[in-house]
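Allow me, if you will, to draw on your knowledge of protein folds for a short while. I have a record of one protein: its chain in single-letter code and its fold written as discrete structure tokens. I should value your view on which stretches of the chain appear to form regular backbone elements. Thank you for your consideration; the sequence and its tokens are set out here:
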Amino acid sequence: MGMCSFNRCVVLLLAALLVSTAHAAPTRRVRPKISDDSAAGTVLYEQGVLENGAPLVALRAEAAALSGANAACINCHRKSGLGSIEARNVIPPITGRYLFHPPQDSEDAARLPYLPNSRLDREPYTRETLAAAIRDGTDATGKPLSYLMPRYDLGDADMNALITHLVALDPKRVPGVNNEELHFATIVTPDADPVVRDGVLNVIRNFFDEKNAAPRVAGGQKMQTSAKGAQAKHMLKVGRLWVLHVWELTGPASTWQQQLKERMATEPVFAVISGAYGGNYVPVRDFCEAEAVPCLFPNLDNAPVDGDRDFHTIYFSRGVGQEADLVAHDLGESNLPGPIVALYREGDVGEVAARRLQAVMQERGVTVQVRGLAADASPAALRAMLVKVPSQSTLALWLRPKDLAELGSSPKRTVYVSGIMGDYENAPIPADWRAATKLLYNVDLPEERRVRLDYAHGWFRVRRIPEIAFRQQADTMLACGILSETVKHLIDAFIPDYLVERIEDTLEHRVLTGYYARLSLGPRQRYAVKGGYFARFTDPAGSRVERIGDWIYP
């Protein structure tokens, strides 16, 4: 059912279960055992592992066999099983309701979520004919499917588990959705910067108010699937109110996940958007993945470095962890002499980056000295710490502007400065440090992003939103806009996994991308910005900077 990356699906839709060719082929009819347990089917579908632990094998004429994760159905048919459309390539949905839908049942068609890639006019599958499609590549009428659809030699137990999983993909109930309203949440942790919290909530509340103030006109709308001769679907287009829930957490981080579960039980939401966080996102991330709730674009300076293993959580970038990888890449290219010292202030997210740099360089046999400045240390203590650093050292500074302004007058050979923590070109680097400083960037330079951010400035000005944490506020506005556009394209297919997949498909086509040059996602990718570059100051004072080299994807 799936054999390659979705981003290379030029040939995939012809491989779908519901597309047949004109040639007949012998079929083998089987009746799999019936089981209510779809856990084995989930592992087979998503990971390409059979019930006995052996890898799934996908065979196709005149092509090399694929096995394991490369042969997993999820690669083409997606986690939701709802398929997709890319250019002229169409992968139909393969969940139970679509596979077994009788074409003459117009009432059932009206109840199905509208998908432009669905096939509602074909002969319905049964468990027997579906098993034959998977094993032998024949459709519900016995005609062969495209050769691009792999053939899988599955035993009865594995076949039953897979089909049971396809049936289970149809959601019984979607939280936070009804005919009148869509419910969303934004999360605030107790360690969040109160200024960021106020700025972010002001943007979200204004966005929701404006969304709900738009005229909502309900009316009949005729929609037709993309297949030739497909049954037209009549549906009522409903303009739903957007309801915002602000989930403010309290107490120690060890209690946050349970708090979120309780809030979800009492205030079910379709997705979580943006928010304000401090240094610990792990409990929120664990909640999102455990409860299968889309958590979209949290405002984080230190997103998890292993976020690509998530499904429901999408980040703008890896934050300071990405910066650490950029420094490690540059150190590998530069072969700078002398020791490497990474400096951060205790209690801030800079420690994550410093430890990341240390770990990456240690794998290469290079030692990085990590030094933490006490949370309550004075500027004099910072300068005293820097004096003790050998003069030939390479410095990596993950410090906030108030510390950068107090660096003193002893520049080192090469100095890397966090753009995320130091505020990019607004970092108050002393004049005699600037020639040696490389600023870390994962956003566009000021002149390159100015036009895109003018829209945010204007939007805030008209709504009298104070710009108190502009980067986080602009990211919040961008996140809300992405969510709004994606929900519009869902029509009535309000399924959490499908929401995430539609964002994957459409994100790179967005024109207004705020601070960022380009946003893109694909399956097994959860960072919309994947690289960065270095910049340097062009003047001894002020904020004029220029790029050093090209984008780097470490």
Notes: The radius of gyration is 26 Å.
